[in-house]
Design goal:
A hairpin with a 2-residue loop joins β11 and β12. By secondary structure, the chain is of the alpha+beta class. The chain is built from 4 helices and 15 strands. The protein has 3 domains: 134 residues, Elongation Factor Tu (Ef-tu), domain 3 (Beta Barrel), CATH 2.40.30.170; 59 residues, RNA polymerase II/Efflux pump adaptor protein, barrel-sandwich hybrid domain (OB fold (Dihydrolipoamide Acetyltransferase, E2P), Beta Barrel), CATH 2.40.50; 75 residues, Helix Hairpins (Orthogonal Bundle), CATH 1.10.287. The radius of gyration is 35 Å and the shape is elongated. A 7-stranded antiparallel sheet has the order 12-11-15-1-10-14-13, with no helix packed on it.
């Protein structure tokens, strides 16, 4: 009986193991290509000015932040301020030096005026008169130098207030009051700014398909998670240098050593409910392999005709 039960259990396990596994349905249906022949790539949404990483020329403690997320700013608007108390103290000394230099200048000018007003020219030597005029010139230069020192410190103080380089929207803020803001190029910028009046999408085309890309081809972008949301794209430019792929989709079959040609398209900001930094699926109409072999159909030749 035990042997029979073991045999029955083995048969049941084998039968169950040989049954086809049920394929899990995708969370969202992927977009379908709208063209008969095409090249495809993942695109990442960015601002029309590209995403500008705002930094500071000097490291220091953040003492004020004037903007918040999604604020629209104009060129020159203040974004945040770095502690400038050390410069303010130096400015007080520099202004005092200006007053001292001006007082010295007033004194030597008065001495020169007295010398020049002597009725009898024999009462003062030519050498003495020349020395007094030289002292006036030296003190005038000292006043100018002191004022220049004040202006220099004021310029350094103004640099401690970081301002928007271009009009746009605040996309990201990664600094806070009281934190040390490091100068230089940072992995995570202190602030991210970009003009989103018209959004761009940077499409990565695999180097194996780059030779089939044509600037004049139609292009459509689909929102990931809802293939019913799509918009036509307008060609802006392509960067004629193939780079290592950095924007990964997370697909298990994706290679990380792929090099891509980056093509930039644009679309109206209100056309789709998307945000800067979001990935999209992009399909670009392309000629068949046979037609794409013609030298006159290269991307450079198409771009020259498109520009003219």
């Amino acid at each position: 009986m035990i042997a029979a039960l073991g045999l029955a259990l083995g048969i049941a396990t084998a039968v169950r193991g040989n049954q086809p596994q049920r394929v899990a349905e995708p969370v969202a249906q992927p977009a379908r290509a709208p063209f008969a022949t095409f090249v495809a790539g993942s695109g990442i949404v960015e601002a029309a000015t590209e995403n500008i990483a705002v930094g500071t020329p000097e490291s220091g403690i953040v003492t004020a932040i004037y903007v918040k997320w999604s604020d629209d700013v104009s060129a020159g608007d203040p974004l945040f301020t770095i502690d400038d108390r050390d410069l303010q103290a130096s400015l007080l000394v520099a202004k005092a030096n200006v007053k001292q230099a001006e007082a010295n200048l007033a004194q030597v000018k008065n001495q020169l005026r007295l010398a020049e007003s002597v009725p009898d020219k024999r009462a003062i030597s030519v050498e003495e008169l020349t020395n007094r005029r030289g002292a006036v010139a030296i003190d005038e230069a000292a006043v100018q130098s002191a004022k220049a020192q004040v202006e220099q410190i004021q310029v350094h103080i103004s640099r401690r207030t970081i301002r928007a380089p271009v009009p746009g929207k605040i996309l990201q803020i990664k600094t806070h009051l009281g934190e040390l803001a490091q100068a230089g190029v940072l992995a995570t910028p202190l602030m991210l700014l970009g003009n989103d009046t018209r959004l761009h999408v940077r499409v990565d085309i695999d180097e194996n398909d780059a030779w089939r890309f044509r600037p004049g081809g139609q292009a459509l972008a689909f929102v990931r998670g809802n293939p019913d949301l799509k918009t036509p794209l307008r060609f802006e430019r392509f960067e004629p240098y193939v780079v290592a792929k950095q924007s990964l989709t997370g697909d298990s079959t994706e290679r990380v050593d792929t090099r891509v040609l980056q093509v930039i398209y644009s679309f109206d900001e209100g056309a789709l409910p998307v945000y800067v930094g979001q990935q999209m699926d992009v399909f670009i109409e392309a000629p068949t392999v046979a037609a794409a072999r013609s030298p006159d159909e290269t991307p450079q030749a198409q771009l020259a005709g498109h520009t003219s």
